[in-house]
Specification:
elongated; mainly alpha; about 0% strand; about 65% helix
Length: about 110
């Protein structure tokens, strides 16, 4: 199989998109500890309006950062599986329709 030059450029871009964030030092993520956007957003809101009071609090908080990461990974895997299933289903349906068109005389 021959790779077109456009495919090679795309593959190089994907590799760079993966490699660059991995090459960045962990110091850029807040002293080596990753903080999600929710916490950062609250910090900005409190700086802008010191009298801000949240109107909602989580019903349950994971017991540790590891459990929180695990739940996030499970959620991401489930979402990726759902998207993969939908794409595979659509592709299979398209192939089946193409096969039916080839075998039906007009």
């Amino acid at each position: 199989m021959r790779v077109r030059s456009g495919g090679a450029v795309l593959a190089l871009l994907v590799i760079l998109l993966v490699a660059i964030p991995l090459a960045l030092p962990a110091a850029h993520v807040g002293g080596g500890r990753f903080r999600g956007t929710d916490g950062k957003a609250v910090d900005v809101i409190v700086r802008m309006r010191p009298d801000y009071k949240p109107w909602f609090h989580s019903l349950w908080s994971p017991p540790s950062a590891e459990v929180e990461s695990l739940l996030f990974a499970i959620e991401a895997a489930g979402g990726a599986g759902l998207v993969g299933y939908a794409l595979g289903f659509a592709r299979g349906r398209t192939r089946l329709q193409e096969q039916e068109r080839r075998h039906v005389p007009h």
